[in-house]
Amino acid sequence: MTDATATAAPATDTRRAGRFLYLAGVVVLCAWVIVPIYFLLVNTLSSPDTVNSFPKPFIPDFDLGSLAFFAKFAGMLTALKNSVIVAGMTMILSILIGAPAGYALSRFDFAGKELFRLLILLTRAFPLPLLALPLAVFFIRTGLDDTTFGLALVHTTLALPFAVLITFSLFSGIPIELEEAAWTLGCTRVTAFTKVVLPLILPGITASAIFAFVISWNEVFAAAVLTIENRTLTAFLLQNLDTSPLHLKFAGGFILVVPALIFIFAVRKYLFAMWGIANR
Amino acid sequence: MAEIQIKNVAKTFGSYTALHDINLTIADQEFMVLLGASGCGKTTLLRIVAGLETATTGEVWIGGRRVDHLAPKDRGIAMVFQNYAVFPHLTVFENIGFGLRMQKLPNDQVKRRVERVATLMHIEQLLKRYSGELSGGQRQRVAVARALAMEPDVILMDEPLSNLDALLRMEMRAELKGVLAESKTTAIYVTHDQVEAMSMADRISVMHQGKIVQAATPIEVYRNPAAEFVAGFIGNPPMNFLRAEPAGEGKWKVAGQVLDGPSTGKGPLQFAIRPEDIDPADQGLTAIAKVVEPLGAHLLVTCEVDGTLFRAVLDSDLQVKPGDKLTLAPQPDRVRWFDPQSTLAVA
Asked: How far apart (Å, rounded) are the C-alpha atoms in residues B298 and B225?
């Protein structure tokens, strides 16, 4: 009995220390993400005077002036519309092209399959600035420059590797026997896909689509280089905020960050799942 | 009427030959078991009949119709998979009714047929559940019910009981046999479990290295194995083999004893006898007991005869200790002979 208590005491100490480290880690990580966003929020909802003053209040004075300014800012709504259109097209294109590739990778054996998987990843190793000039020239020649479709094509190439790899792991998670069972129960390859595979992967596909949307939404370099009139929100803000006062920079940043945050938050479960962490 | 004919079916994967020229006819309403160790080609053959795999050469006929060029859905078959393949996004009801919905049957008819097979498989209380809420045995029942609901000509089963625990497997074995006999469908059942094969089959096809070694009734396969492989594979413990040297016309010398045997053949043969067909006697093979295992009903004695391992199932009242010298007489009508060259049985 005495032995048990003697050995139990240090064990509790170790456990307490471990728990402390764990909590400290959680706090630091949360602060890492939340503090910048918090400042962004506070400054966005403050009046220009408060933004430039010091020290700053922790609770914003809910001055919607900066945001109201953006709502009325010329070209703002068009840029927002362009962003949504480009991101929407990117989303659709990358799923339409990426999902069949993911299906093929998971279900069929073909020569060069491993090489193909490697090449998909290698497309991400190519720096976009290197491609920007030839791409711009090519777009001007084909008349794709300064169009939302042209930009969506570029964003699709950026989002495609993720779409292929995410859908590949989604399809691989579905036993082939489910499809085979459907075939023996009266399905063709197509109906087996729509009746069995699709319902099972739809949530994952949605997540993958939203991920593609966010990639396009956040992309600024190609958008800035390839568009002039039809700027997306990122390119538009980058161009205009450079010379804007501080409170408008905060508000602009806020407008960019919030939708991306909301989208990622909505699909977080699936983004974890594709890295094999979550419990689906 | 759904007789299955497999004609000259062969299957190669690259340079590997999975099936060599298989010929097999399965009668209408027959329960055929494909039995063999893993990798013998039994599942490949089943999948070729199902249409999930294409044969490299050969033909498959079901009910007098050539089907090897048809999709699985047009062959009049239903299949039960080893891992059940119950659709996780549908309820048990919709799983069982899946094939009927694909046939666009009216709702009331779907309901009637689903409820009938659910009652048959004792899962009528589970119809509203999802696959994730079922145990392995219940999923197995759903998979069988889904196949039966199709009212197929042919039902194909790929090791359907191998994922169940031993007790459940024994229970399902008897139940499945009864249900299938009732449904009057032709069945092909793949298994590596010889007890399952013996107890369920009308006929067993023993497969080995991509060939059917013997296709016969369970008793025939057990009593008269067509090849050494069958003799060594079926039965627990399997048959005993001893070398037999020719000793005159129709006489063979086995472990120092001269026995009557086939009058054909010049070279040595393999003498074979089942462990339970051996009795202690005054005259016979001299055996030294090595291991004695009392199994309750019997005594399994592993001994050495002529330098070869030899098993005998003896009466449990017999007093035998390791090291004892026994005289064992094989029952003459149960002795079988194999040609060591061709490994086939010699009459």
From this structure: 24
